[in-house]
Amino acid sequence: MLYKSYFALALLLLPGAQTFAQNAVYQEKAKKDLNAYFVSYQAKQTDFSSQPRLKELRIDDKQRKVTVVPDPSFVQQELNDKQIGKIYKKVRHLLPKVYRDYDLSIVVSGLPLENYDTDFTSLSGNSLWGKIHYDGLPWVSNASRPFRITHGLYNRHLVVWASHGRYYDTKKGQWQWQRPPLFGTCEDLFTETIVLPYLIPMLENAGAVVYTPRERDLQTEEYIVDNDGINAPGYSESDGGKQWYNCPRSGFAYRLGNYVDGQNPFKDGTVRMAKTTKKGDGTYALWQPRFQKAGHYAVYVSYQTVDKSVDDAHYVVFHKGQATEVRVNQQMGGGTWVYLGTFDFGEGKSIDNCVMLTNQSKRRGVVTADAVRFGGGMGNISRGGVTSGLPRVLEGSRYFCQWAGAPYNIYSSRGGTDDYADDINSRSRMLNWLAGGSVYVPTVEGEHVPFELSLAVHSDAGYAPNGKDLVGSLAICTTNYNDGQLSSGLTRQASKMLAKDLLDNLTRDLTYKYGNWARRYLWDRNYSETRVPEVPSAILETLSHQNFPDMKLAQDPHFKFTLARSVYKTLARYVNTMHGRPTIIEPLPPKDPAVTINNRQQAHVSWVVQDDPQEPSAHPDYFVLYTAIGKGGYDNGQKVKTTSVDLDVKPGVLYRFKVTAINRGGESFPSEEIALSAQSGSQKSILVVNGFHRLSAPTVIDNNSQQGFDMRDDIGVSYGPTIGWLGYQQSFNKSRIGRESSDGLGYTDESLAGKVIAGNNLDASTAHVEAIAGAGKYNVVSCSSHAVETRRVALNDFDVVDMVLGLEKYSPDALVYDKTFTDNIQKQLTAYTKSGGKLLVSGAYVGADMTGTKEADWLSATLKVNYSGSLRTDTLQGVNGLQQNFDFYRIPNADHYAATHADILQPADGAVCAMQYNNGYSAAVAYKGNDYRSFTMAFPFECITDKNMQRRLMTGILNFLLK
Fold this sequence. Notes:
alpha+beta, six-stranded antiparallel β-sheet
């Protein structure tokens, strides 16, 4: 031992060893001093969610570099150039002298601290746009957002569209699709399933104003309220301190119903106007429709731009009693439909569901008021004497542009003789007309909206002869036109940069996520959608709609999210780089939410951060919790600094919650919905567990002889509603690959054309909470099943556990693993029942998803059911049980996801049949033992069509379980 000690001492006396030991001492001291600095750091007007600490210190002696990494909460403060300089000076001073002349970087969430400068004064200004920059107010902005976006796309105006749409073939005298019907869809529909539910919301969540020259709303109902009041009454005015009077310019009037070529609805009516006041004086215009059906509706306003128009017109959208304030810059974009957002409205006519424009403004001038439109509606452009007969969202751009008041030469450059060519050209011409006169398109006469980029999202033809390989993506730009310049003088090479970035990043992101993706070409060619726009533009051919290996991935909603997020990230970075600014990527949605009742009888709402391993900057700085109370709509949210919050709640009232993650780059998509209802003096507590997270493509057939989607077996589950299905695939013969005929591989009928089909809104548990709350006896809360799996919520704390399984099941071709009962959940439910718990389970695949020997044994032992097969529900007439006769959603529809298949569950030992389908098969099993009780339904409880019936049945089930 003495020999070893002397040997170690001798090593330390060597020069290299001494240096190493000294460096270790220096580094430990640096870590201690820097951590003390961050732990004690205070920022003005900032209450950190958690006090910052030193996360990591990296010292590279060879490169003479020091990297200091505080944890992400450090950048929750507002930073400017001066403050960042002070932080660097202090950090450098805290370093041991040996390191003070090293290059120093302070990095937070993968980005240098300098990139968090909110006024950008420290940036070099190296950008392609140079001095060309729009610094006015946005065309439209949500003034009720409880957060700021400084490093995303705030005040950036972009145009994005989804390829083709239904058009009228003047030679054939009929309406038709622009691309062939393949694999359940066609390009006209498929690309909208990427652009509308994913890409545009991502860009808007980053702060962008996004215009699309096709209808964006799937809502087939449409209500128009206009000051001319011809077809839809509901417009009113209040003259407070200022009077309303007629504007000298014409406006919208809905006089014709259907419109023929050349007719412009924005030339048929009048516009009202009023002088503004800073404080507001009770002068307002009100648009109040009578909604025949509750639901989500896009809201479009219209007005005229006149000499004294203000840039901050004050609109308020009232939706189910909540008020969202929207500011509109009326100095641009007059005489067309201007999208404010999509809102949830109640049925009937009420002040709780309307739009108001006040004359309150920071500027001296006027506001103008014209029609307001709610919902996407049905196509109303007549060609050849007939309309398309389909929702407007499925029609080509040509017809939307006419309905939106565009001049005739914008949507019909061929004089009404060639709608196909007009449709292709109208997308870019609409952009130029709206952007004309802005800083980005100064040489074109137009409406001054500062659009600075356009993107056309397509899918392409082409197939792999072996039926196995991917075709993949290509991107297109046009540089050889107009001497290589755009209207502003900017080089068209900017479009090539955009196209290359889109293609490179999409290939990288899809390969990262799914292991393989095919990159095709970057084409610099003469295409209308990249030649005509007077701003940087690109076409992205996402994949091949003719190649089943591509479509097998593409119809999975998870793939669509990944694809859209890649495109959003590219656009965000490209736009900011064009202005010499840094980019922060918006976060991923929070996961695993739960709401319980704490000891103070408050709602305790919690969730888990979901980081993006590809994007360190996407870490959230804080969260926004959205709350809906009773029958009211969701509020505008409240900022929450940590991953939980306690809220006071009133007894007997239903509360719904969802949460988003926020950083300087924008807002994430929302979490799944959770709900709660507390009852005064209740001695019983019930937990509703949402186990329905499945999002998937239809059933896949892919073998040596056949390929395609068997949508009659399972149509899949979309994220929210979809209108992307054309019909059912008819031809599965792989030997007919590549043939565009009725016997070609993938050929599809049109039986689903125009039909909105409900998907998973991630709110399945709420119907259960509502039904339980209707009894007025129990405290009821809900959570994600993942919160149970991670034991953040303990089953044994509750008298009853209600497992909501909806359409959950394992799909072998899905990109994400789903399962009704994971091994973890099985173990926890077994332990819960052994401790005497009461269990309610419902879902369409309770048995069908548990057919392995051990799985079937578990069903029999725990739920007391035996799976006896599945049945198609389209031939059923309903269910009877608990002295009730009722039906459930069995056919795909717009209102609620349908259980197109359901299990036959027979009672195991000691259990009884509690419900029957009308054909006599067992639809539910009840077990009442001395040890525990259970009630298992072979179809989703929340699919029961009648809400009152849901309450009656739930009351009966709970009486069985608890009495």
